[in-house]
Structure formats: C-alpha cells, structure tokens
Amino acid sequence: MQERVNLLKQALQDNTAAIGLWCSLSSALTTEIVAGAGADWLLIDSEHSPNDLRSIVAQLQVAAAFPCEAAVRVPSDDPVFIKQVMDGGARSLMVPNIRTADQARAVVAAMAYAPGGIRGFSVGHRANAFGRIANYHANARAQQLLAVQIECETGVANAAEIAAVPGVDVLFVGPGDLSTNMGAMGSPNAPHVQAAIASVLAATRAAGKAAGILAPQRADADRYLADGFTMVAVGSDLGLLARGSDQLVAQFRKG
C-alpha cells in the first residue's frame, strides 16, 4: 500500500494557487459537507476551535474521501501534540505565531523521525494505515507539508530566516493577529500592516517557498492571489453558516 500524494504540497511546489476553506465547527459532518465543495485544501482548526484529538481524527477520516488535502492547525508548537496529530493521520500542519528560525527548526524536528528529528516512533498508527504503508517511517517527510504562521512584528522581521529553514514549506500570514499586534486591531488593510504582509511575501518568494494568507473577503483574496500568494483561505464553515443564516432570516424580517 502506498501513501497518497499530497496534492497541496505538489501544487505549491509548482507555484499553482490552491484555494482553501477553514473548518472551525469541530464537526465531522460539517467538515464532510465542506470537503465536498471542491476546495483544494481544508484547515481543521484546533487553535481557536473546540477541537480535540478525537474530533480532529474524525474530520481527517471524512475528508479522506475527497481529493482535497486536510491540514490541521495545532494550538501551538508543542511537540507532543504535533506527534499525536501526525500519528492520527495529519501530514499537513499549520503552526501559529512562529517568531524565529530556531522555533521553526524545532517544529520541523517535531515532525521528523530520528536522526533528523524527535518524532516518537510507533510501528502502526493511522498515519501509516496501521502498518500497511511500506517504508512509511523512512519516507514520511516526502508527503508532509509545514505552514508556519507569521502573526507578529518579530515574525515579520525574521521572515527571510524562517523561510530559509529546510522543511518549512509555507509562510502563512495571519492578518487578524498581525494587525492586532501592530496596533491596528480589525484593520488588516491598514497601510503599515499591508507593508508588513508584502515584506513577508517578498522574503518567502525569495527563498523559493510558498506564501499563504487568510482572506475571507473576495476583493482581498483576489488581490493577494494577484500579488503571488498561493495558499489562500477564502472562507470558513462557521462564517458560511452564520452569514447564510443571517441573510436568510433577514429576508423575512424586512419591513
């Protein structure tokens, strides 16, 4: 048995835009619905959503029926949780608030088996189809993708060094946290925040890596894609449900 190809990693290496959707509702059923929409990738969030290891694995299971890549955002750079999520089948990870190259290197090490890393060894788990994928442990890195989030001024200043770390595939800007940390809460389009975002994009592309960003407004998404961002999230299950239900009820409340 062979591990299926990580189509998101392949697309980003080919400099092809990949459109994604955030999954924040911690439900395998809603993630299954979103996975059927045809997005290139999904992000199962465990930083700002009430997900735990079991709910993450359940969502990975339903997403596996579709050609989209299911990535998982872990709550932090904790190597223990990274190990558990990866054993549960996540091979594309997003790690929030990476500030330095040393921190990025530590995350890469948490994802890799010795001698290149510290990931704990288990003979059979969901990641290797319970022991059915031949030579999984020796080749696990080939289908892994690591997106590190740049969400503060320190991360922006160190973007070039972070992008140069082997094993880092994507620098993913978190515009909400970045704008908040730069004194412009709720205003990611403030000129100084946009300048910081542009500098991250330039540093990332200079290193030959992919740049990503969350852009739920269509005009923002179109602009970022035109600028050269390729891993772009354009909405979320939570947002679609909230706005859709708001709009539907509002149609019957007019007048």
From TrEMBL:
<dbReference type="InterPro" id="IPR015813">
    <property type="entry name" value="Pyrv/PenolPyrv_kinase-like_dom"/>
</dbReference>
<dbReference type="GO" id="GO:0005737">
    <property type="term" value="C:cytoplasm"/>
</dbReference>
<dbReference type="GO" id="GO:0016832">
    <property type="term" value="F:aldehyde-lyase activity"/>
</dbReference>
<dbReference type="Pfam" id="PF03328">
    <property type="entry name" value="HpcH_HpaI"/>
</dbReference>
<dbReference type="InterPro" id="IPR005000">
    <property type="entry name" value="Aldolase/citrate-lyase_domain"/>
</dbReference>
<protein>
    <submittedName>
        <fullName>2-dehydro-3-deoxyglucarate aldolase</fullName>
    </submittedName>
</protein>
<dbReference type="InterPro" id="IPR040442">
    <property type="entry name" value="Pyrv_kinase-like_dom_sf"/>
</dbReference>
<dbReference type="InterPro" id="IPR050251">
    <property type="entry name" value="HpcH-HpaI_aldolase"/>
</dbReference>
<keyword id="KW-0456">Lyase</keyword>
<feature type="domain" description="HpcH/HpaI aldolase/citrate lyase">
    <location>
        <begin position="19"/>
        <end position="242"/>
    </location>
</feature>
<dbReference type="GO" id="GO:0046872">
    <property type="term" value="F:metal ion binding"/>
</dbReference>
<keyword id="KW-0479">Metal-binding</keyword>
